[in-house]
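lol forgot to send this yesterday, sorry. struct tokens for the thing we talked abt
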């Protein structure tokens, strides 16, 4: 392995840097660059999120955090390393868990604490207009027809990190530095001068592959291979879908891109596909493609994947 430091977009790297008790310092520093002033994190506690996620991979990439502000206000942050397949649906679905977990037995007035869902994306939105396409931070809330916030206790913050293009010399804010590390930590050979702060020195120490035990190194290598294979398949399929869209129209092209993506994912996992499966994919509608895409991470066999057909 050539890299000196872990890739934060891998499930292993993400959990190593942000999902352990010893990583709280990094987590608080990063999240406070995204949260409003009245919800700056003073104390943080990990929740048990084993109830979440259709797969073990999802559970590794989603952290529910009980947070307390400096003024004593309680709120929840859900940190997700978003996956490309139906990431908006997935993000909204998992955001319902920290809301439902606030339910109390007996008489309860339904008053909820604020919930922030923060999605870390290593891809960009395909459906944004040109004015928004290059933005790094996307804040989403429920609004009415007059564009007024209807409910201010649920906020989605999506970070499209490929849009962050600042160089080392342009890192002026703490937020800039965190975004830079997400994009480039695994490419660095030494610690840049602008990142020689206590919180980052701690992160570099935890992210050093040379410090890993043999089992940690093996787990990271497996996680890195999975990330690279999946990203290569998805990126290729997305480009094919865009090409189809240019030739056949936007909506039809998007469906064909989804079909091509699923075909590649299934082939990657199960090998060469029999003719009847290829035919199923060719004839499937959008809803069928969606169901199969969601199920592919949990299905051990082709029979399980297509069990409802």
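and heres what i got for the seq, position by position
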């Amino acid at each position: 392995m050539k890299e000196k430091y872990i890739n934060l977009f891998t499930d292993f790297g993400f959990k190593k840097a942000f999902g352990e008790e010893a990583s709280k310092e990094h987590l608080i520093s990063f999240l406070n660059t995204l949260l409003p002033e009245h919800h700056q994190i003073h104390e943080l506690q990990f929740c048990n999120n084993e109830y979440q996620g259709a797969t073990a991979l999802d559970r590794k990439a989603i952290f529910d955090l009980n947070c307390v502000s400096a003024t004593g206000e309680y709120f929840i942050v859900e940190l997700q390393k978003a996956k490309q397949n139906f990431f908006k649906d997935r993000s909204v679905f998992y955001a319902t868990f920290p809301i439902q977990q606030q339910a109390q037995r007996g008489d309860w007035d339904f008053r909820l604490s604020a919930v922030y869902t923060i999605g870390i994306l290593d891809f960009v939105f395909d459906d944004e207009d040109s004015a928004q396409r290059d933005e790094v931070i996307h804040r989403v809330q429920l609004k009415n027809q007059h564009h007024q916030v209807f409910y201010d206790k649920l906020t989605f913050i999506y970070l499209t990190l490929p849009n962050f293009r600042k160089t080392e010399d342009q890192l002026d804010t703490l937020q800039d530095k965190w975004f830079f590390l997400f994009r480039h930590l695994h490419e660095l050979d030494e610690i840049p001068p602008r990142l020689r702060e206590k919180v980052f020195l701690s992160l570099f120490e935890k992210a050093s592959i040379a410090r890993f035990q043999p089992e940690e190194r093996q787990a990271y290598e497996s996680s890195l291979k999975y990330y690279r294979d999946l990203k290569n398949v998805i990126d290729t399929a997305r480009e094919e879908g865009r090409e189809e869209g240019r030739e056949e129209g936007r909506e039809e092209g998007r469906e064909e891109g989804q079909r091509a993506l699923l075909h590649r994912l299934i082939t990657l996992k199960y090998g060469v596909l029999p003719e009847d499966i290829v035919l199923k994919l060719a004839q499937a509608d959008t809803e069928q493609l969606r169901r199969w895409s969601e199920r592919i991470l949990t299905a051990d066999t082709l029979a399980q994947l297509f069990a409802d057909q």
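The beta strands are 41-46, 62-69, 74-81, 115-121, 137-143, 149-160. anyway ping me if u want another try
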